Amino acid sequence: MSAGAEPAIVRTAESPWRRVAGNFFANPVAVFGAALLGLIILAAIFAPLISPQNPYDLAQIDVLDGKLPPGSASSAGGHFWLGTDDQGRDMLSAIFYGLRISIFVGVSSTVLALVIGLAAGLCAAYFGGRSETLVMRVVDLQLSFPSILIALILIAVLGQGIGKVIAALVTVQWAYYARTVRSAALVERRREYIEAARCLALSPMRIVFRHLLPNCLPPLIVVATVQVAAAIALEATLSFLGLGLPITEPSLGLLIANGYQYLLSGKYWISFFPGLALLLTIVSINLVADQLRDVLNPRLAR
Amino acid sequence: MLVYLIRRLLQSVVVLAVMSLLVFIGVYAVGNPIDILISPQADQADRAQAIHALGLDQPLWMQYFVFVRDALHGDLGHSFVYNTSALGLIFERMPATLELAIVAMLFAVIFGIPLGLWAGLKPDSWSGRSIMAGSILGFSLPTFWVGLMLIMVFSVMLGWLPSNGRGATVPLFGVPVSFLTVDGWRHLLLPATNLALFNIALMIRLTRAGTHEALMQDYVKFARAKGLSNTRVIGVHVLRNILIPIVTVVGLQFGALIAFAIVTESVFAWPGMGKLLVDSLNFLDRPVIVAYLLVIVTLFIVINLAVDLLYSSLDPRVRLTDRKG
User: Fold this and answer.
1) What is the C-alpha to C-alpha distance for residues A123 and A178, in angstroms, rounded to an integer?
2) Closest partner residue to A256 among B31, B148, B256, by Cβ?
3) How much is the ipTM here?
4) Closest Cα to residue B79, out of B88, B70, B71?
5) Among A231, A220, A229, A207, which residue's Cα sits nearest to residue A179?
6) Please, what sign has the CA dihedral across residues A228, A251, B261, B36?
7) Measured between alpha carbons, how far is B253 from B193 in angstroms, rounded to an integer?
8) Tens digits of per-residue pLDDT, B242-285?
9) Which residues in chain B are closer than 8 Å to A243, comparing Cβ atoms?
């Protein structure tokens, strides 16, 4: 039974993933966004291999190279294409390493928040009653306050550190998923296939996770993509304010904050280039999300 | 209507009480202000005296009880750092933040609505498309970085506008304001633009979507059939009907603007309550943090209520009744 239940509908046409991918790549702007995002992720993953230097290895940096403008020659031979910071670190290398931390924090907090929000939203929609009221009250209360405020309160309560920043970002984000998945699940719950699954006396857990969940995924994927960008931006903001990551985890936000004090003396590159990297990351994610929204929306596909 | 109002007010009181408890426990359970506030050289007797003076030797529930009792008397404790009333400190900074938020909201309305209207009337034109592309950028750009870039271009490179502070202020009904002086405007321009950017993008999107929808309605076709001028159709018939969602969003976003002013104020060293919060968080100045949060929660509750009431007076179809289910 389990083998024949779902694929029977799909087998007649091409697989849904292929159709989505085909539609996705029809838009040149989205392809550009996806390619840019791919490059950024590769740069983040392979940062130690492609960086000209390890910016946090004291043996490789020289204070005498400090605050050099972009394109200057380094004392060890070679060039600092994006200039150096006050410690003589190559900004390009620092950005690659910073991307790593920013993307790690953004993605891990999104995944955690997705899991929590998904479980809460699905249970609320499927079981209803008191659990639904409780979950949705908390969600409503939380969403009536701006994310930055909630994140700042949590940082004030939890203290600083990478785990605590992730915890704060998860708390900020879970409500979005809970609300999205609940509204999707409320619609899906009334469909015939759920009724059929109930008639087969499948366990509630099986119905929720095997039948309800996959059909609620499309809107959730869109929200999750947008939220990765939002989480990266929020982490950068917190770090910029000195309330996010500690100095041992130099994310893009910390790099920008470090360059802030040199901005007024005209040394723009120390905060301009990390900011540009942050901007490109966020814009490319949003371009991908925009196209995903169009592709995954069945109302527009028809 | 009256029942609705009473229910809403009761709900607001409950929300406020819950938030105060959460914030109090959260903020007071973390860190030890004694280590920060008392010099490490102080001897045991000095330490004990300081702890007693700050009330930190009481059990937590007792501290909360004292806190609530004092809060109901309008006293949210004394700042550990400034040694003045925490609430007074916040009210002293509040005009600067409100001024910044109001000017930013004005910018958003002044620029956002016409641009959105244009994009909605000419959706396929080159200009309409670029307005929409620009609005996506407005959503994606991180506020603090845009602030830095504004400083870089207009203060450092061009030297046109100052990069920090509030400039000259004049008292208006006893409240210092800077929008009445030229110097004040020079200081306001960059931070307000920075804060407004997200909302300009939001206004563009909202107005465009509303215009797009309104143009297809029968009453617009009828107005055109009557032979009314294009200006009148758009200025009166279209604009009036898209104003309802816009007013709602302006109201709701005003609270968000005050919250996001935290970032802008930090970048431009604007002496408002957002910067006070960031400084207090860095110093672990707990009474100020708690007071700020309670003030802003109250502000949010008032704004949400005001928007609901305004909404019902603008749109007669909306009835404020107790929602069920």
Assistant:
1) 10
2) B148
3) 0.76
4) B88
5) A220
6) positive
7) 15
8) 887 888 788 878 888 888 888 899 888 888 888 888 888 887 77
9) 278, 281-282
